[in-house]
Amino acid sequence: MIARGSLWLPLAILMLLAALSFWVERSVQGTAQDSPAVETDPEGIMENFEALRTDPAGRPRYRLSAKKLRHYSGSRLTELESPHFVQLDAVSGDVSAAARQATISASGDEVDLRGNVVVERAARPDQPAMTLRTAQLLVFPDLDLLRAPGAVAIQDGSQTLHAGAMEYDSQRRVIKLSGRVQARYIPGKG
User: Fold this and answer.
1) What is the pTM of this model?
2) Fewer Cβ atoms within 10 A, N terminus or C terminus of the chain?
3) Residues 30 and 117 both lie in one domain
């Protein structure tokens, strides 16, 4: 009888350890899933962020700066606070865009500017300066393309334009307006 009783003691200890490890695993997993900090805490934060991209020859193509950058690893999302994007072009002139906030796609090929977006094109000898205002602007830096999916207001020397949406090819300096387009021309100005 003593030999049989001595078998039950190690078995009971093993069962107790298995139950305890199962309970510890469940409580740790429950805490991780219930915690909103796992989803909302950024992996990295940078203040006064600035990045410069060059072409293969080493000439600057565009510059992106922000007051604060937050990167989230789970969604690979990057958020910018007070972003400023500048397409640099010595021949055509610079085009800059500023907003209250922005997100950068995981691949880095799209920047979504939101909140009081202002785009400015530098004046050239053959063109006056241009200012564009919209609520949202999608920037595709490698394509030299700016796209506003909502209403835009454009002021350029002697004319003021309003449209439902806009696409701007900054390399060719071509603006495509769509939706309800209204133009006002002021002769002799500009």
Assistant:
1) 0.71
2) N
3) no
